[in-house]
Amino acid sequence: MNILIIGASRGLGLEFVRQYRAAGARVTATARDDAGQARIAEQGAKPLRLDVADAASVSGLAWQVDGERFDVVVINAGVYGPGTAGLETPTASDFDAVMHTNVLGPMRLLPQIAEALAPGARVAVLSSKMGSIGLRASTSGWLYRASKAAVNSVMKDASLALAGQATVISFHPGWVRTDMGGSGADIDATTSVAGMRTVLASVKPVDTGSFFSYDGQRLAW
Ligand SMILES: NC(=O)c1ccc[n+]([C@@H]2O[C@H](COP(=O)([O-])OP(=O)(O)OC[C@H]3O[C@@H](n4cnc5c(N)ncnc54)[C@H](OP(=O)(O)O)[C@@H]3O)[C@@H](O)[C@H]2O)c1
């Protein structure tokens, strides 16, 4: 198995690296600083430098993975942005930071990744149940919610564009104890990533364009 994890300096991304390496896979993973790259290398994976919010940085990915054929690609990098409670208009800079990382990043990455997929590859975007409109019961973090709803749309288009080539899905990883999820979250990163790896191993081409929870349940848009 040949694996690519985008955004793997810590949290769920680094846990994907750890578990795929423990399973004997060959892993390439990205971070945007030396410390993150060192943590990736410690797991026996190949670290690459990548800032998903930087056009020049992302445009360098294609040549860095030239000749690779990935069986699994996980686009994990994401930011939460302002922790708003109601209809608090975000600043333009918060809007740009969240949307550039969570939405424009995948829109820049997916065309490059498409060139480096093994036949029958699986591509996953780390979205969130907070992006589901159908399941919406709270207004907390509405900028983050908007970004994850938008990346679900991006994933769906990627699933259509890559039909017959790759199975493309969105994940809700659960509410996970990471820097983003906080110490009071429901589950640990080990459980979340083990679940998502099981889903990635079991999805079929017919599942492309679907939104899955880490435990395999299908989620409403
Ligand atoms: N934890 C949860 O409960 C939860 C729930 C639903 C969805 N998610 C989603 O799951 C994904 C991972 O979450 P997490 O909990 O592991 O978050 P985290 O602990 O905050 O880690 C975020 C990761 O994204 C990377 N990242 C952020 N901006 C980046 C950029 N511009 N370029 C490259 N990498 C960047 C970070 O790298 P640096 O170290 O360089 O900052 C870090 O590796 C995110 O997309 C998140 O929205 C998480």
Overview of this structure, please?
The chain has a seven-stranded parallel β-sheet with strand order 3-2-1-4-5-6-7, with helices on both faces. It has helices at 11-22, 34-42, 55-59, 61-64, 92-114, 142-161, 189-202; strands at 2-6, 26-31, 46-49, 70-75, 117-126, 166-172, 211-213. It has one domain (2-213): NAD(P)-binding Rossmann-like Domain (Rossmann fold, 3-Layer(aba) Sandwich), CATH 3.40.50. The protein is built from seven helices and seven strands. The site of NADP nicotinamide-adenine-dinucleotide phosphate has 30 residues, from helix 1.
Features:
single chain; seven-stranded parallel beta sheet; Rossmann fold; binds NADP nicotinamide-adenine-dinucleotide phosphate; 221 residues; alpha/beta
Number of domains: 1
Bound molecules: NADP nicotinamide-adenine-dinucleotide phosphate
Give me the number of helical elements.
Answer: 7
Radius of gyration: 16 Å
Strand line-up across the major sheet = 3-2-1-4-5-6-7
Distance between the termini: 31 Å
Total DSSP E strands: 7
**Beta content:** 15-25%
* Broad shape: globular
Q: Regarding CATH, which class?
A: Alpha Beta
Helix content: 25-40%
Largest sheet: 7 strands, parallel
